[in-house]
Automatic annotation (TrEMBL):
Source species of the chain: Frateuria terrea
Domain BON span(s) in chain numbering: 51-120
Protein's name in the database: Hyperosmotically inducible protein
Keyword Aminoacyl-tRNA synthetase: no
UniProt xrefs under InterPro entries: BON_dom (IPR007055), Lipoprotein_DolP (IPR051686), Transpt-assoc_nodulatn_dom_bac (IPR014004)
Length: 143
């Protein structure tokens, strides 16, 4: 009976030792798996960021080469293929041209131009200021 009891205690001790020894290996395996999945997911977002940068550059260059669009007054931002235009344009016609040109760029999913305001440009005009002088009033004394 003593041998079976000793054998049983040795078996339990060996089982506990093996189980406790496996815990660090399981943690290391879980960390490796998590690191691999985060690497894969971060690699998947890089092409999207490159595409957005390309779209932004392409839209800006289209604006720069357009005749009736003042590219310096319009800011372009792209996120997941959605182009956001902000700034000011001289007319509603210029605004619609900008929206149309942005939509034509390959990869653009939508265009948000709510931040693009129409503010008519003031032309530089020379304002002449005229000053009038009133004749000096002469006081007449009673003659």
């Amino acid at each position: 009976m003593r041998t079976s009891s000793a054998f049983r205690h040795a078996l339990i001790a060996a089982s506990l030792t093996a189980a406790l020894a496996a815990v660090p290996f399981a943690q290391a395996f879980a960390q490796d798996t998590g690191a691999q999945s985060s690497t894969e997911s971060s690699n998947q977002t890089v092409p999207g960021k490159v595409d957005d940068a390309w779209i932004t550059t392409k839209v800006k260059s289209e604006f720069a080469t357009a005749r009736h669009i003042h590219a310096t007054d319009i800011s372009v931002d792209t996120s997941d293929g959605k182009v956001t235009l902000t700034g000011s344009v001289a007319s509603s016609k210029e605004k619609s041209r900008a929206i149309h040109m942005a939509r034509k760029v390959k990869g653009v999913k939508s265009v948000d131009a709510t931040g693009l305001t129409v503010t008519p440009k003031t032309t530089k005009s020379t304002t002449t200021t005229t000053t009038t002088t009133e004749p000096a009033s002469s006081s007449t004394s009673g003659m």
